[in-house]
Design brief:
Layout lengths: L35 E4 L11 E3 L2 E5 L38 E5 L9 H4 L2 E8 L4 E8 L2 E10 L10 H7 L5 E4 L1 H7 L5 E5 L7 E5 L10 H5 L5 E2 L5 H8 L8 E2 L7 H5 L5 E5 L3 H7 L9 E4 L11 E5 L3 H24 L2 H13 L7 H13 L16 H17 L10 H4 L13
Parallel strand pairs: 1-5, 4-7, 4-8, 11-12, 11-13
Antiparallel strand pairs: 2-3, 5-6, 6-7, 8-15, 9-15, 10-13, 10-14
């Protein structure tokens, strides 16, 4: 288990933050272990910074700096998710980029556990830019390339990961939901090559003591209960346009905090994530600290694949030789993470702490992966293959969002098909979690 510690929240001006190239990571730990090294900066300037986050309720510290007399834990030995051995049969050198870059849409968390599990050897953490890098290791074997995982959301000014594929040519993969992939098809087309999660963990939360008759989201729509959500969420357009919820009851003023939930004493319904807010409200929010009811948005017939790994569509021919080898490695990592999440969760918790992000306890990480498995959010779906796409589901997403985006003056390309958006060409159908 990684040692836990917390530093005071500090926000530094850009001029006070050293570039990692001139402030190299300091090596720590024992030779032969998968060690963690951290880029640090020093400044006498400090002030507290709090930021409201979409999709997560707790305040977030945007940057962490350790002063000369700060709270650095010193040199500690940290065992990474995988021990590193000599290169095996799954070599990626020469066919993949020397550094495979994965841009996430959020801080490290259980949903991205399969990618963090691929990190091995000596890890380097850049606190300022909120990213971690190390050898890309497949089941203990060095693949001959490095993996760089970059946090998103508050860490990159909320720039969607799929858009980063166009803004930064170094990015290999960006995570994106299927409805977002459809939305980008006309302007910045991307293609999903593997789906780490089969279902979205997005839920509508409620107090079961006050609303014992809420068994489906349609039940909520038969009442006048206020439903709080983030403005611009496409799923809410679907729920209201299909008549599942009433337009008069939805409120796009959710700011990512529990304030209105607490103020209403739980009388409202609020969006959240099964992997996060449900646990934090029940166990970590002192003003609540009791049962939370939840209903998956996916159960209403909104069948997106969340946070799938996408590439620029125009780069597929060049990346194809790499994807043929790398995608099955990612599939096996999904299965490996579900089977033994502990070492990866240890790293995820440590990274969240190093980045000065939001409180993410070992207990919440363990709950996240447990609920991912129990609710088939991550798994084989309708067959015995993990990470693949059901093209009928993808067509259903196109059919749902086409009129929504047309109404927003974002028409889709003519003749858009599922194979323009996703591909199973690199999936190994023999790899599953069962």
């Amino acid at each position: 288990m990684l040692p836990e510690y917390r530093c005071p929240a500090r926000d530094l001006p850009a001029s006070a933050v050293a570039d990692p190239s001139t402030n190299p990571a300091l090596p720590v730990g024992d030779a032969g272990s998968a060690d963690l090294t951290v880029c640090t900066t020093h400044s006498s300037e400090r002030r507290e910074c709090r930021l409201t986050l979409p999709g997560r309720w707790l305040p977030v510290v945007f940057a962490v700096a350790l002063g000369l007399a700060g709270c650095s834990p010193g040199a500690v030995s940290v065992q990474g998710p995988q021990a590193q051995r000599a290169a095996g049969a799954a070599g990626l050198g020469g066919v993949c980029p020397a550094t495979v870059v994965f841009q996430s849409n959020w801080w490290p968390q259980a949903e991205d556990g399969a990618m963090y599990r691929l990190l091995g050897g000596r890890l380097s953490v850049d606190r300022r830019r909120k990213r971690v890098s190390g050898e890309l290791v497949a089941d203990g074997s060095d693949t001959g390339v490095r993996l760089d995982i970059r946090s998103g959301g508050p860490a990159n000014g909320f720039t969607p990961a799929a858009k980063m594929l166009y803004l930064d040519p170094a990015v290999t993969f960006g995570s994106a939901d299927t409805d977002q992939i459809v939305q980008l098809a006309a302007r910045q087309p991307v293609k999903a090559v593997v789906a780490p999660m089969d279902l979205s963990p997005l839920v509508l939360m409620f107090d079961p003591a006050q609303h014992p008759d809420f068994n489906t989201i349609g039940d909520i729509g038969q009442t006048n209960t206020k439903v709080l959500y983030f403005q611009g969420a496409t799923y809410m357009d679907y729920l209201t346009q299909s008549g599942i919820l009433r337009r008069s009851q939805v409120d796009p003023d959710y700011q990512g905090t529990p304030d209105r939930w607490v103020a209403s004493h739980g009388s409202i319904v609020q969006q959240g994530f099964l992997t996060n807010e449900v646990y934090s409200y029940e166990h970590e929010l002192p003003q609540w600290h009791r049962k939370v009811g939840w209903l998956l948005v996916s159960d209403t017939g909104y069948p997106i694949y969340p946070e799938s790994l996408t590439i620029r569509a125009d780069r597929e021919p060049a990346l194809a030789p790499c994807l043929r080898r790398l995608v099955p490695i990612i599939q096996r990592s999904i299965a490996g993470y579900l089977a033994d999440p502990g070492p990866t969760n240890d790293l995820v918790v440590r990274l969240v702490n190093e980045y000065g992000a939001f409180p993410y306890s070992p207990a919440r990480a363990a709950y996240g992966v447990q609920t991912i498995g129990e609710n088939a959010i991550m798994g084989d779906g309708s067959n015995r293959t993990v990470g693949d796409f059901d093209l009928i589901r993808v067509q259903r997403v196109i059919d749902i969002v086409k009129p929504i985006f047309a109404g927003q003056k974002q028409p889709l390309p003519a003749g858009l098909t599922p194979t323009d958006l996703v591909t199973n060409a690199y999936i190994d159908p023999t790899i599953g979690t069962r």
